[in-house]
Amino acid sequence: MTSFRDIGKKPQGVEDFSSLVTHPYNIMLILFLAALSMAFLAISGAYLYARFTTGEAPIKVPIMFIINTLALVGSGYTLKWAKKCYETDDTEGYQKALLATVLLTLLFMALQFLGWSQLLENNPNLAKGNMRAYVYALSILHFIHIIGGLPFMLLFLLTAYKRMKEPVSVLVYFSDPLKRLKLKMLGMYWSFLEKLWIYIILFFWINYFISFK
Predict the structure, then answer these.
(1) Model's pTM, two decimal places?
(2) Radius of gyration of the chain (CA)
């Protein structure tokens, strides 16, 4: 006899999308994140080399970058909350968690613009020196990938509110293995961006106390 929890599941012998580690989608995501990591490490290395060869002053990290870090870490927490609610079939909690994640992400993006403005105020020579290229390359490249993940976040949010209205549609939604996989991948991607931003902040903060003169 078929239970409601079996609705939406693939028949036996058909590919199981919940197998995250070996799924092609997951492998492509890992390769993409690895390439992105190499790009950020290359820019970081170029920044250190430029500082060493030119002797330019280090960059002071604006306080706004610290504040928006809290917003991004908060969005990562609420996305984990959404994943937990999905696994426990908590419809209301799932919707609230996704909404909170989107709002915190938008807050991070708004604070990012304030941070760039504060960056120029704290570093008046930044506009004239060569260091600005590296600062903006790291922060803007990260910002672009935040923008890239936002539509997927919004899609999850809109779908959750649109389809999770009746008991049967809720059960179908929670039983969809492909949706479960995509939620896991979104969580992995967001966790990477969260850690990457923390790395950028720590990188410039530590560099501030290092002199190459």
Answers:
(1) 0.82
(2) 21
